[in-house]
Design brief:
Chain lengths: 595, 165
């Protein structure tokens, strides 16, 4: 009889969709069928196919099942595990094989254009089991570095690979390492920035939840290269599962001699501790993050000196983002030449994006640099659901911009995205359809940065507040001629004069929407019209002839603007209407038109 | 008001001793504040004074740190802490409607607690569950794919479970 291995996704989304209940049911059903001796159940981290969760994979045979419910469990056991017949109705459509890792369990359309380097183990290994990681070349890069390489050679390899910081700014990683390595020791620090604060981004969380050891291995190699023996992972307190898995991974690594004194019998000692953030977006900025680890308010300071010279506790400090660290072991094992063969002339390797918003396949994707936005949105992401029209794609979170259709052929790399008016950012990618208002989107992002501005420098503290006031008044129908120009002038000034990256990029969502959707701003200001029907103060409501006179709208109207007899068509008094939209939501017959 | 139990202050002091004598001792302040919030649900003045004494840091400085970070509550919180995710993905999919519904249903503003100490309403910046947007988190549990009706149902369930004790 065939032996089976079942892999269950244990990421946050799948857990919410009852993957753990499915596991319990599977175990019970397998026990009942008396086949427990030939079926093993594994847990894995996020597979990135959150939209089709919970995901169950049965190997061998590479059957990937999506949207599995508890009711499907008996069928999976009876049909697949006992009779050996995969269940077509649950299978996620297959396509050609593409990358070396998803060969392991076949390939669905979603994975077709992807190439997984940093997420190579996510969804394959059990993140809480170090043996799983060891079985897939885990800690081999560390062993190679400690036995065959000098610190200089490691720095050179990273430099040659062309890897650039994945936190957003894209600074060449190898140069950062070289600068820190040059500084005198012995007290130096290695920091992993896992303070993923962009709204709409969950790459780092999933990477750590799915494969914590990769990040740890990268950091140990970094410590060896720059001559440090102390690492710190700074992670958001809002990510309890990621923290738990990191703690377990650190303890296991220590037990196995990968961390601590004299790692793997060499002369090199290194250990890592976890420090929790406390909910401040600005702490993603490296100098603010350092202040936070020091136990102070997380405010940035002017650079230079750069952390490479004077960082944590005024000592030389190497800070890289989670995804950057996760690239390191692969670069060491497969070589700088292999890594730099992937991507474009200036941007090497792959980039992870958290695809969300109005898109069919919400989830994590990793694509080679140079992939176009269109391929990500329409091939990997599956396009826009419900037959709606694509309007824009937002990259880089509150520091980035909104790109309309004409930029869909833009290739993903640091320079091309910047030229198009957005940024790479840490990897949030939000798809926006025709139901979203761009003025409202700009206001949403600015509200966020305004709220998160630490208040240290005037342009960011006061400037974003003034911009937000103007945007608010535009979306409430009080916009004045000249407001757009005022926003542009203020925005450019804030960009030039702010102290840190937060302020320098805060106006981007506003400036990019003005550049690409100027007509929407003009409509709001001059015609008091919101074409997407989002800015409620600009909406007018009208009751159509299909009204049956049920009175539901009249009952909910807070300003008594609706009148009409029962079973007769009602009417709205525009003078009394406060545009709250309650009637629109209350109507069960679609008899109220808003516009 | 919630009573400040002396044994919890003792536990806090005990927690601080593990850092004592280590280099850069004061840098553990944020970890200590996390511990205090775990013990009391918020950061009472008494806890800050205790930390000030044990760590030899002025209360004013601790206050400055505590107010800087969104994660720390300075007022007592309800039995159910509802965090409405206002991350971009949730926002695009209707988080504002969810938040408005909660405000109307609970008759409180963001950051406030109902007089019966049952619910505290908070905004959150991306809970990282964008795949099931819009989401809210009640205490440590995430609820996804919400709309106004589902939210009201949830609140009623919570009320019922609280009434049962």
């Amino acid at each position: 009889m065939e032996k089976y291995v079942i892999t269950l996704c244990d990421g946050t989304t799948c857990i919410q969709k009852k993957s753990r209940e499915i596991r319990t049911a599977l175990e019970a059903e397998i026990q009942k069928a008396g086949i427990a001796d030939r079926v093993a159940i594994h847990l894995s981290g996020c597979l990135g196919m959150c939209a089709k969760g919970p995901i169950v994979i049965v190997n061998p045979g590479y059957s990937m099942y999506g949207n599995v419910t508890i009711n499907d469990v008996p069928e999976i056991v009876q049909e697949h595990l006992i009779k050996g017949r995969p269940i077509a109705r649950l299978t996620i459509d297959e396509d050609h094989l593409y990358n070396r890792f998803f060969r392991v369990f076949g390939d669905a359309d979603f994975f077709g254009k992807q190439m997984r380097i940093t997420l190579r183990n996510c969804g394959i290994i059990d993140p809480e089991n170090i043996d799983d990681y060891l079985a897939l070349r885990g800690y081999e890069a560390l062993a190679k570095v400690l036995t065959d390489m000098t610190p200089q050679k490691v720095v050179e390899t990273v430099k040659k690979s062309g890897l650039r910081g994945r936190g957003g700014a894209g600074f060449p990683t190898g140069v950062k390492w070289e600068l820190t390595a040059k500084e005198p020791g012995p007290e130096k620090y290695v920091i992993c920035n896992a303070d993923e604060g962009d709204p709409g981004a969950f790459m780092d969380r999933s990477a750590i939840e799915g494969d914590p050891h990769t990040v740890i291995e990268g950091m140990i190699i970094g410590g060896f290269a720059i001559g440090s023996n102390k690492g710190i992972i700074y992670i958001r307190a809002e990510y309890p599962l990621a923290i738990k898995r990191l703690e377990k991974a650190l303890a296991d690594a220590r037990k196995n001699g990968m961390l601590g004194d004299k790692i793997l019998g060499s002369d090199f000692s290194f250990d890592i501790e976890i420090r929790l953030g406390a909910g401040a977006f600005v702490c993603g900025e490296e100098t603010a993050l350092i202040h936070s680890i020091e136990g102070a308010r997380g405010m940035p300071r002017p650079r230079p000196p750069f952390p490479a010279q004077s960082g944590l506790f005024n000592k030389p400090t190497l800070i890289n983002n989670v995804e950057t660290w996760a690239n390191i072991p692969v670069i060491i094992l497969d070589g700088a030449d292999w890594f730099s063969s992937i991507g474009t002339a200036t941007s090497k390797g792959t980039k992870v994006f958290a695809l969300a918003g109005k898109i069919k396949n919400t989830g994590l994707v990793e694509v080679p640099m140079g992939t176009t936005l269109r391929e990500i949105v329409f091939n990997v992401g599956g396009g826009i659901p419900n037959g709606k029209k694509f309007k824009a794609v937002q990259t880089g979170g509150p520091s980035g911009g909104c790109l309309p259709e004409k930029y869909l052929e833009t290739q993903i790399d640091y320079e091309s995205l910047a030229a198009a008016g957005s940024i790479m950012g840490s990897g949030g990618m939000i798809v926006i359809d025709e139901d979203s208002c761009m003025v409202n989107m700009a206001r949403f992002f600015l509200e966020f940065t305004q709220d998160e501005s630490c208040g240290r420098c005037t342009p960011c503290r006061e400037g974003t507040k003034r911009m937000l006031e103007i945007l608010t008044r535009i979306s409430e129908g009080q916009g004045q001629p000249g407001d757009i120009e005022k926003l542009e002038r203020l925005g450019n000034m804030i960009k030039k004069s702010s102290l840190c990256g937060l302020g320098q990029s805060a106006p981007n969502p506003v400036l990019s929407t003005i550049k690409n959707f100027r007509e929407e701003y003009e409509e709001h200001i001059h015609q008091h019209k919101c074409r997407a029907g989002v800015c409620t103060s600009l909406l007018t409501f009208e009751i159509l002839d299909s009204c049956v006179g049920c009175g539901a709208c009249k009952k909910v109207c807070p300003s008594e603007a609706i009148s009409g007899k029962r079973k007769e068509k009602h009417a709205i008094d525009p003078q009394k209407c406060i545009h709250c939209g309650q009637c629109f939501m209350a109507c069960k017959f679609g008899a109220i038109r808003k516009g | 008001m919630i009573d400040i139990q002396p044994e919890k202050l003792g536990e806090l002091r005990q927690f601080i001793t593990q850092f004592q004598g280590k280099p850069y001792f004061e840098s553990n302040l944020i970890a200590v504040l996390h511990k205090a919030q775990a013990l009391f649900g918020y950061l009472p003045r008494e806890a800050m004074d205790t930390i000030a004494e044990a760590m030899n840091i002025p209360t004013a400085h601790i206050w400055g740190v505590a107010t800087f970070y969104h994660y720390f509550n300075l007022k007592p919180i309800g039995k159910f802490v509802i965090s409405v995710c206002l991350g971009t993905a949730c926002y695009v999919k209707g988080a504002q409607e969810v938040l408005d519904t909660l405000r109307n249903e609970l008759h409180i503003k963001v950051g406030e607690t109902t007089p019966d100490m049952l619910f505290t309403l908070q905004e959150a910046r991306c809970l990282g569950a964008c795949g099931i947007a819009p989401v809210i988190m009640i205490n440590d549990k995430i609820y996804g794919e919400l709309n106004s009706k589902k939210v009201v149902d949830l609140i009623n369930q919570m009320r019922k479970s609280a009434a049962k004790g």
